[in-house]
UniProtKB/TrEMBL annotation:
Domain FAD/NAD(P)-binding residues, every copy: 7-342
PANTHER family, per database record: NADH DEHYDROGENASE (PTHR43706), NADH DEHYDROGENASE-LIKE PROTEIN RV1812C (PTHR43706:SF45)
First-tier enzyme category under EC: oxidoreductase
Name of the protein this chain belongs to: NAD(P)/FAD-dependent oxidoreductase
Keyword Oxidoreductase: yes
Organism for this UniProt entry: Streptomyces longisporoflavus
Keywords of this entry: FAD, Flavoprotein, NAD, Oxidoreductase
Gene Ontology MF terms in the entry: oxidoreductase activity
Top-level taxon of the source organism: Bacteria
Residues of the signal peptide: none
InterPro entries linked to this entry: FAD/NAD-bd_sf, FAD/NAD-binding_dom, NDH-2
Similarity field: Belongs to the NADH dehydrogenase family.
Length: 452
């Protein structure tokens, strides 16, 4: 009787999913070669997005293709399934998922059995029931959103340049960003820098005509770089005429008017929402234990607490921080932890299959870096605080060292070199979002842009 291979199901192809599968295909190379093990990765996208590069992709410093890593190329020993897991019955070791062909087939979700499961679906944007947010808000978590936002900003400058209505012009040149974490501050800094540069090519739009507003509900921004660097960041943004509003919330954004909790009202066509994330909804459709915040209840060995053959890490998992002085503290849901957890996770799964002892995930905090635009940044690394160009340079060096594959490192580095030698590209390719618009017009129909 032929023994079935041990199937390891990886749910998600983000940081944890990709790096865990990558580690496993190295650690289990003999078992994979002999057909004793199988790694299946179910992910909605055929690529992993390196999110720290999204702000630079939005600003045009990096090509969108180079901030994503094709999974089929990197995980050549794994079976990649482009689909989305909708439920997990761990008691029966079964997961259900849909694929791109599910709707056409009409057969519903497909079931897959497994021996070990890695829950790494990541997180989704944490939104609030704010009037108008669902209709008008723009996220900043995927490469599609980053490029869409870049096109949108340049399109607003084109609208302002062509209109004779001062109200339309004012709304087009007002950009509201909600959330003072990494995503919000870096996206705002890079896009403001790009728009300031682009304004020199408009005869009737100047940099000082634009209003950039950062709204943060707490009393500080970029808490990861420390209080001092956070205050420095606020001062630098304000020196660039960016309106930073701390301890302020977005109350509404209906009818293209952003209403803030301090009573301010800004006519705007752009509201970018970067106010935090929450665990992926698929976790609620499993029989695995969750904590009060909806994250997987995990141990320091990255197993799911109370069950066997289930593992978790990254944004979706509550992993104890064994290096913290205070008891009960969890690892922050960021990329720095996710990449390191994936290595330990891959090692532990391999050790478990070989009946070897597991290791606890430990991580000594190195520091944080953030870009505020071209040649501008802040950093708090190994206890040292850096500002301006040195911090920006460290930001690039650090993330270049972390982006996967030599192929991607080389492409990103070459783009940085070329962008230093030549001028910025400031072309909006918004028509990419409606690729059939021109053909539909030619065929006598209404284009999607007209109907929207």
């Amino acid at each position: 009787m032929v023994k079935e291979p041990v199937r390891i199901l990886v749910v998600g192809g983000g940081y944890v999913g990709m790096y865990t599968a990558l580690r496993l295909q190295r650690k289990l190379k003999p078992e994979l070669t002999r057909g004793e093990a199988e790694i299946v990765v179910v992910t909605p996208d055929p690529y992993m997005t390196y999110q720290p590069f999204l702000p630079e992709a939005a600003a045009g410093s990096i090509s969108p293709r180079h901030v994503v890593v094709p999974l089929r190329r990197v995980l050549h020993r794994c079976r990649i399934v482009i689909g989305e897991v909708v439920s997990v019955d761990h008691a029966k070791r079964t997961a259900s998922f849909t694929t791109l062909a599910t709707e056409d087939e009409g057969t519903g979700a497909v079931d897959i059995t497994y021996d070990e499961i890695v829950m790494a679906p990541g997180s989704v944007a944490r939104t609030l029931p704010i009037p108008g947010l669902a209709e008008h808000g723009i996220g900043f978590k995927t490469v599609e959103e980053a490029i869409g936002l870049r096109n949108h900003v340049i399109e607003q400058m084109d609208i302002a340049s062509s209109t004779r209505d001062p109200e339309i012009r004012d709304a087009a040149l007002t950009f509201v960003f909600v959330g003072g974490g990494y995503a919000g501050v870096e996206a705002l800094g890079e896009l403001e820098d790009m728009a300031r540069y682009a304004s020199r090519y408009y005869h009737n739009v100047k940099a000082e005509d634009m209003k950039w507003i950062l709204v943060e509900a707490t009393g500080r921004i970029l808490p990861e770089v420390g209080a001092e660097m956070g205050k420095y960041t606020v001062s630098q943004l304000r020196r660039r005429n960016i309106d930073v509003r701390l301890e302020t919330r977005l109350d509404a954004c209906e009818d293209r008017v952003a209403v803030l909790s301090d009573g301010a009202r800004f006519p705007t066509r752009t509201v970018v929402w970067t106010a935090g994330v929450k665990p992926h909804p698929v976790l609620a459709a499993t029989d695995l234990p969750l904590n009060e915040r909806g994250r997987l209840d995990c141990t320091a060995e990255l197993t799911v607490a109370g069950v066997t053959h289930a593992w978790g890490a990254g944004d979706a998992a509550a992993v104890p921080d064994v290096t913290a002085k205070e008891p009960g503290k969890e690892c922050a849901p960021n990329a720095q932890h996710a990449v390191r957890q994936a290595r330990t996770l891959g090692d532990n799964i391999a050790a478990s299959l070989r009946e070897q002892p597991l290791k606890k995930y430990t991580h000594k905090y190195v520091g944080s870096v953030a870009s505020l635009g071209l040649h501008k940044g802040v950093a708090h690394v190994y206890g040292r605080k850096l500002k301006g160009y040195p911090a920006w340079f460290m930001h690039r060096v650090y993330h270049l060292s972390r982006v996967p594959t030599v192929n991607r490192k080389s492409r990103v580095l070459s783009e940085w070199i070329l962008s230093g030698l030549f001028k910025r590209e400031i072309v909006s390719l918004g028509s990419l979002e409606h690729p059939r618009a021109e053909f539909e017009l030619a065929a006598g129909g209404r284009s999607p842009k007209e109907s929207s």
